[in-house]
Amino acid sequence: MIKLKDILSESFAWDRKFGEPLPTLIDVMNKKNCDCGGDCCGISEGPDEQRPADKEVQRIVKAEAKLRERMLKLEQIFLRDARPENVKIAKDIKKVYKDTVTKFMREMIKLRKKMK
Asked: 20 to 30 A Cα–Cα from 40, which one of 50, 58, 90, 92?
């Protein structure tokens, strides 16, 4: 991605002959050969690309809510019998859920926000 600082520091932008118009952003971007082939230099993102991702994120969030509910029910089943080994199993179930599913959900939301 071309940064504004790089564009402004280019000396060729102000090297022009008398009567030539000032360079536009497109002119500067064309002179600055981008390694990516121009995909990162233009504004090509829009709501059409983001809507399908948002829908899938919502589906995953709903599925995770159901999974969490089932996990908590299972934890309560283990806690009905107050033996120490059952209490430990209930704690382990909750810990594993938090370490795996909750971590995935956080990362997935973070990555979705980075999508352009």
From this structure: 58
DSSP one-letter code for 20? P
Cα 7 to the chain's mean position, in Å? 27
- In angstroms, rounded to a whole number, what is the distance separating the alpha carbons of residues 30 and 42? 11
The C-alpha atoms of residue 116 and residue 103 are separated, in whole angstroms, by 22
Do residues 94 and 73 make contact, with C-beta atoms less than 8 angstroms apart? no
Helix, strand, or coil (residue 53):
helix
CA distance 64 to 60: 6
Contact by Cβ (8 Å): 101, 67: yes
Is the pLDDT higher at 99 or at 10? Answer: 99
pLDDT, tens digit (0-9, with 9 covering 90-100), for 60-71: 999 999 999 999
pLDDT at 68: 93
pLDDT surpasses 70 at 45: no
Q: Are 78 and 89 contacting, i.e. CB atoms less than 8 angstroms apart?
A: yes
- Inter-CA distances, 44 with 52, 58, 59, 95, Å: 16, 24, 26, 42
